[in-house]
């Protein structure tokens, strides 16, 4: 259980922060940038939820929780030392990826195939979900970059890859199952 009885600690005033294993690193490190962008993704999901209801809102709530799990996973380097940790280390699981795939498949069954690229927009919810998609893609790029330099749970990369696809399909659902998608017209303004 997390207990936050004091919000500011002053320990980061010199530009460093603590990772989940206690190591101190620069706040601009690749790892902090990666899990910080996961946190940013979570904030965009919160904005999208202002316009969501029912099943889609419930799924977004699960994604928000997953994104906290992902941040906890990413802030804890040295996967090979997990067994030595004083308490269980939280890592992303294949079940979380599988759940997204099942939900993507269900959404795909509800929409017509695309004949053009979709422009971000349509309904307010769809526009917010497109923002979630692009921020999660940036998080994915940062995590992939981090994984080329340091140890990263490969499931974290898979989750982010599926997540952006999930946001895309959810944006189509939010646009009346794709009927209100705004389609790209190549060269329309030449």
UniProtKB/TrEMBL annotation:
Lineage summary: Bacteria, Pseudomonadati, Pseudomonadota, Alphaproteobacteria, Rhodobacterales
Protein name: Corrinoid adenosyltransferase
A single MF term (Gene Ontology): ATP binding
Residue stretches making up the Cobalamin adenosyltransferase-like domain: 7-173
Pathway: Cofactor biosynthesis; adenosylcobalamin biosynthesis; adenosylcobalamin from cob(II)yrinate a,c-diamide: step 2/7
InterPro entries, alphabetized: CblAdoTrfase-like, CblAdoTrfase-like_sf, PduO-typ
Catalytic activity, EC: 2.5.1.17
Pfam families per the UniProt record, alphabetical: Cob_adeno_trans
Keyword set, alphabetical order: ATP-binding, Cobalamin biosynthesis, Cytoplasm, Nucleotide-binding, Transferase
One annotated GO biological process: cobalamin biosynthetic process
Catalytic activity: 2 cob(II)yrinate a,c diamide + reduced [electron-transfer flavoprotein] + 2 ATP = 2 adenosylcob(III)yrinate a,c-diamide + 2 triphosphate + oxidized [electron-transfer flavoprotein] + 3 H(+); 2 cob(II)alamin + reduced [electron-transfer flavoprotein] + 2 ATP = 2 adenosylcob(III)alamin + 2 triphosphate + oxidized [electron-transfer flavoprotein] + 3 H(+)
């Amino acid at each position: 259980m997390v207990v936050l009885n004091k919000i500011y600690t002053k320990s980061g005033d010199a530009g460093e922060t603590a990772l989940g294993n206690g190591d101190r690193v620069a706040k601009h490190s690749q790892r902090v940038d990666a899990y910080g962008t996961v946190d940013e993704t979570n904030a965009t999901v919160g904005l999208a939820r202002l316009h969501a209801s029912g099943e889609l809102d419930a799924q977004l709530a699960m994604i928000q929780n997953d994104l906290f799990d992902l941040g906890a996973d990413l802030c804890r380097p040295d996967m090979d030392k997990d067994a030595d940790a004083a308490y269980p280390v939280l890592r992303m699981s294949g079940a979380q990826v599988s759940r997204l795939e099942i939900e993507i498949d269900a959404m795909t069954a509800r929409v017509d195939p695309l004949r053009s690229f979709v422009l971000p927009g349509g309904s307010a919810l769809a526009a917010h979900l497109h923002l979630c998609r692009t921020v999660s893609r940036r998080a994915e790029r940062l995590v992939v970059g981090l994984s080329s330099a340091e140890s990263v749970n490969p499931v974290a990369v898979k989750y982010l890859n599926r997540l952006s696809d999930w946001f895309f399909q959810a944006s189509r659902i939010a646009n009346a199952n794709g009927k209100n998608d705004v389609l790209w017209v190549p060269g329309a303004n030449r």
